Amino acid sequence: MRRNRAFLATVTATVTALALAACGSGSDSGGGAAGGETAASGGDLGLVSDGVLTVATEGTYRPFTFHDGSGDLVGYDVEVAEAVAEKLGLEVRFQETQWDAIFAGLDAGRFDTIANQVSITPEREEKYVFTQPYTVSRGVIVVREDDTSISSFEDLEGKVTAQSLTSNWRALAEESGAQVQGVEGWAQAVALLEQQRVDATINDSLTFLDYVNENPDAPIKVAAETEETSQSAFVVTPEREALAEAIDGALDELRAEGVLTELSEKYFGEDVSQ
């Protein structure tokens, strides 16, 4: 892997851009959680109003937050938030919000926190308080399962990769010396790869894991990954730091009990929580 400053800067910019997603419906969906093992109700600690943890999420970002065939709000982030609320002895209410408005809603106090793969970045840390991460991901090079010619980012020199022209993955591919064929997204990139019309595609490891979890016979594999990681966490405004600390305690318990690993494997086929 290239280790010069330009390369590392590109990787950092790439892996911290993962929180951008499609727009949500803007509707509300509620889910109840009975009292958990930790006594941390809103009334006792003044963390939330009326013992209800209000969580903003898009509801359109599979597999993190989306609606299943019956219309229920489900997903990795949704179930992690539900498990946290149960640990804190709180009810949980999800407020579906478009990504472009989600931080404004947090600033205005319309909800207590966000569960929507919010990446921890230096810019956001200047304004908000993050919990410990519950998702860790890397950028990965994806190739056909029988391809042995690519095992590092240096090997992309002269190869053709399929990338969305507006994504940071395109910049990483070009930095690595690849020729880029523009596509609309992951689905088209994988189709071109399987048809042997391109040599590789670069994307987030979570995107790859979700795809192979849903398509276990897909003839693709990860050839290399970035050293830099993207970490996603719950986020609150500075005056709600006590809530972030309580969520950290809940996440510690869920991690120790294997719940985060179980939820990771359910949605991705392996542990993405650390």
From TrEMBL:
Transmembrane segments: none annotated. It comes from the Bacteria. InterPro entries: SBP_3_CS (IPR018313), Solute-binding_3/MltF_N (IPR001638). It is found in: Cell envelope. Keywords: Signal. One of its GO terms (cellular component) is cell envelope. CDD domains: PBP2_Ngo0372_TcyA. Coiled coil: none annotated. Its main location: other. PROSITE patterns: PROKAR_LIPOPROTEIN, SBP_BACTERIAL_3. Residues 52-271 form the Solute-binding protein family 3/N-terminal domain. This is ABC-type transporter, periplasmic subunit family 3.
